[in-house]
Write a structure and sequence with these properties.
The protein is of the alpha+beta class and 318 residues long. Helices cover 33% and strands 22% of the residues. Helix 9 links the parallel strand 10 and strand 11. Helix 2 packs across helix 3, helix 3 crosses helix 8 and helix 8 crosses helix 12.
């Protein structure tokens, strides 16, 4: 068995079904009720395509990201934590084998299964507040490496120190990570931190997530901001940015956010140069997020838990 280099949290369903059964069954599972064998579909694009074939509209970034991480991110030896809503404890286990599609283990609503070896149940109080906040994230499958140092006694001496945290810019630009769940929400809540009132809409026809922002709470002010958000490695081109420009009405401005950046023709488009559409790439979005994080609503911080770390500076030589 591999030594643990990562800690994952898998939420045991809304009504605690998985947490109540996983020790006896030696497995954890997630739902989405999609009978897609993720062992045969190894890419996010492939998962999204299969979801759309089975049920049009179901291939959302959130669903795709959860399924992809569960099947491909959690590996043998990784620590898997399952919060128990009834006992308020954290069940600790280790991944014991590869993903399998198996609706017989937990039923048809939770067909995506990973075998685990049960280790112990621990109290949440053993973790400091910062780690408990991380464990309290609303996501279904996510990394929680900061919990590892506080599990050494139950895991034995074989656990490795937590892996280095990902570079935030890489983390932000990686499709399927934080932006799977909060792509539109984060942009809307950054705008709220800047003093706007934001409404997150449905996914747009061209694959983005729409946010409508107003200077006032009722949306009656003349100025409106239409936000198109894309989480991808590739750059957005002039056709994609032009789509947003084309749907703007009188008194509206556009804000196009793309973590992968923009092509030269998109940045030089007349409607960008005259200010009708503003562009924000991944690095600029990260700067905005960090600058205004403290002013963001609590629900945004729950989706993306961050903590401030102070690093001593080398004194300047005089």
């Amino acid at each position: 068995m591999e030594a643990a280099a990562a800690v994952w949290v898998v939420r045991g369903a809304d009504t605690n079904e998985i947490a109540a059964q996983f020790e006896r069954k030696g497995a954890v599972a997630i739902g989405f009720s999609n009978m897609i064998d993720l062992d045969a579909v190894r890419t996010r694009q492939g998962i999204a395509a299969q979801l759309e074939i089975n049920q049009p509209g179901s291939g959302t970034p959130s669903t795709v990201g959860q399924l992809y991480r569960f099947a491909n991110g959690i590996r043998v030896g990784h620590v898997v934590l399952i919060p128990d809503k009834v006992t308020k404890r954290i069940h600790v286990s280790r991944c014991a084998g590869p993903y399998r599609l198996d609706p017989s283990t937990f039923g048809a609503f939770y067909p995506h299964v990973l075998p685990v070896d049960y280790v112990a149940a621990v109290e949440r109080s053993r973790f400091p507040v910062t780690v408990r906040n991380t464990l309290g994230s609303v996501l279904t499958v996510f990394r929680a490496d900061t919990a590892l140092p506080y599990l050494q006694d139950v895991l034995g001496g074989s656990a490795l120190p937590p892996s280095s945290p990902p570079d935030l810019k890489e983390f932000l630009a990686e499709p399927g990570l934080w932006a799977d769940e909060i792509e539109g929400q984060a942009k809307g809540q950054i705008l709220e931190a800047l003093g706007y009132k934001a409404r997150v809409g449905q996914k747009g026809k061209n694959g983005g997530v729409d946010v409508l922002a107003f200077p006032d709470v009722f949306g009656l002010a003349t100025l409106r901001i239409e936000v198109q958000a894309k989480n991808q490695r590739s750059t957005a081109d002039i056709q994609e940015v032009g789509y947003l420009n084309g749907i703007l009405g009188s008194g509206e401005r556009g804000l196009f956010v793309c973590t992968g950046g923009f092509s030269a023709d998109a940045r030089n488009a007349p409607f960008v140069r005259d200010g009708r559409v503003s562009l924000v790439d991944g690095a600029e979005l990260l700067d905005l997020l960090l600058e205004h994080y403290e002013q963001m609503p609590a629900r945004a911080k729950d989706l993306l838990p961050l903590r401030r770390v102070y690093v001593p500076e080398q004194p300047a030589l005089t």
